[in-house]
Design brief:
heterodimer, A: 239 residues, mainly beta, Immunoglobulin-like, 2 domains, five-stranded mixed beta sheet, four-stranded antiparallel beta sheet, 18 strands, B: 258 residues, Cytochrome Bc1 Complex, Chain D, domain 2
Chain lengths: 239, 258
């Protein structure tokens, strides 16, 4: 009898523990960001330094549109208003590489606390200068074959990345306090899994087209699909 | 005669006592009284350029920095150029104290007319505008001590580094601030105002100080808000090479100030 009581107590405790540790219901947000406005032509920029390696000219493609889907590449889709406590779990570094006189990736996304790792794979010197507003995040000389420079993202927001040696090199880093963000692929598509169920505000940011918002409802399980289109007129877009 | 001698000793004692008391002036705790006093001093000594609210928009500063760099520092949300800390970090209190005490050549006067306590009070007040000072704990970099002195070989090596690290691209082949990036007008500050490259042959105009240690500090920290980057990563573990570059840059003006 006593053994049965102990067994029942243990089973109850295990059941109770499993309930208390049950994960909240989550769903997935999938979608595509479109741009159907007027074409924005590539910008041709004269290179004034290290032309032997970088070339005499470079082109800047401000808006990359997929020819079939009309999807917008390089937009950052994120969920607003979620701030998770800092995780102790190790996060892989957010690698930002100077390569072929450009930054790769041009749009990088990460979580506050995550290490930005700056590399230089070019045989020329770069000067990676990252700022948020008027304040410098880091400004470091990167000679060829130099060791990577690391620094954790301090605060959420938009960091601008430039190379003071090569003005045409530009990139952005967006930092969040949660993992619910993605950069759209070359077809404009994205997928954000494990979102807490409920109403959310989605923000889409693009370095040239600006920012738009959309409300979504995430079910307790399954997927929610959205397709968002950037307004054709710049006035309708918010920066 | 004796009377005069006693007077001389008394005067000496008074002066010594005053110096000692100044040197002993401790940094006051950041409390309401400190901030109130810092505000009073700031509004008399600093607000004309930096603005009553610390946004770098004082009546003089508005004219000084509207079209040309540098603008007066915005204490509310700007970063800081002159630091002993890593690139992107806030300055230490000692950094702020050094700048207020020494001034910035060609830009800001030295405020030795304020006593040490007053300088600390004004530092407490200007820091109160920027919440980052409450969230971050700026720590100085570790600066390598100087080797015995410059050698001809070291200076030659410094020249090699000067070219390799592209210093000449901004500062010019002979350090006169006339490198191709500078003369082409490509150098911009955080406000997108055009700035000059420092003339390395004229140490009296170096904003971050002209001693060899000042120069080494500038190379390691960079000057935030300008294109001058930090070279700390490149010289990590190569302190002797860093000093060679310092000696070479100092040789451009013929002054080897320690």
């Amino acid at each position: 009898m006593k053994a049965l009581l102990i067994l029942a107590t243990v089973l109850f405790a295990v059941h109770d523990a499993s309930l208390s540790h049950a994960e909240p219901p989550t769903g997935t947000l999938v979608g595509r960001i479109l741009y159907v406005g007027p074409a924005i032509p590539e910008q041709v920029i004269e290179v004034t330094r290290d032309t032997a390696f970088c070339g005499a000219q470079t082109t800047h493609r401000a808006v990359a549109i997929h020819s079939i889907t009309r999807g917008l590449e390089g937009a950052v889709v994120s969920i607003d208003g979620i701030a998770l406590p800092a995780s102790d779990a190790a996060m892989p570094p957010l690698v930002l590489t100077n390569i072929h006189c450009a930054f790769a990736p041009r749009i990088a996304v990460g979580i506050v606390g995550q290490q930005v790792e700056i590399r230089n794979d070019d045989p020329i010197m770069h000067n990676t200068h990252i700022s948020m507003g008027p304040r410098t995040f880091v400004n470091v000389a990167m000679i060829p074959a130099s060791r990577p420079v690391g620094k954790p993202l301090k605060q959420p927001g938009i960091y601008t990345v430039k190379c003071d040696a090569h003005k045409f090199m530009q990139a952005h880093i967006l930092a969040f306090t949660h993992p619910y963000f993605r950069v759209t692929d070359e077809t404009g598509a994205f997928r954000i899994p494990n979102l807490p169920a409920g109403e959310h505000q989605v923000t889409i940011w693009h370095d040239t087209l600006g920012t738009i918002h959309q409300s979504v409802t995430i079910p307790a399980q399954g997927e929610t699909q959205i397709t968002l289109e950037y307004p054709k007129h710049a006035d309708a877009r918010k920066q | 005669m004796m009377h005069a001698k006693h007077l001389k000793y008394a005067a000496l004692l008074i002066v010594t006592g005053l110096c000692a008391s100044t040197a002993q002036a401790v940094k006051p705790a950041t409390n309401r009284d400190t901030l109130m006093e810092g505000r009073r001093i700031y509004e008399q000594a600093c607000a004309w350029c930096h603005g009553i609210g610390g946004e770098g928009d004082g009546p003089a500063g508005w004219f000084i920095g509207r079209y040309t760099s540098p603008r007066p520092r915005n204490f509310v949300n700007d970063g800081y150029k002159l630091r002993s800390t890593a690139s992107g970090e806030l300055p230490t209190d000692q950094d702020l104290f050094r700048v207020i005490t020494q001034g910035i050549p060609g830009v800001m006067p030295a405020y030795r007319s304020l006593n040490e306590r007053e300088r600390w009070q004004v530092i407490a007040y200007l820091k109160s505008w920027n919440s980052a000072f409450e969230e971050e704990t700026p720590a100085p970099l570790t600066f390598p001590s100087a080797p015995p002195g410059p050698t001809e070989a070291g200076i030659q090596h410094g020249r090699h580094l000067y070219v390799k690290l592209d210093c000449r691209v901004c500062h010019g082949d002979n350090g006169e601030g006339d490198g191709p990036e500078a003369t082409a007008g490509h150098l911009r500050d955080a406000d997108n105002l055009r700035i000059r490259a420092t003339n390395l042959t004229d140490p009296s105009a170096w904003k971050n100080g002209a001693s060899s240690h000042d120069l080494l500090r500038t190379l390691m920290t960079g000057l935030d808000g300008t294109p001058m980057p930090s070279y700390a990563n490149e010289f990590d573990g190569q302190e002797e090479a860093l000093w060679d570059l310092v000696w070479y840059i100092q040789s451009l003006s013929g002054k080897q100030e320690r």
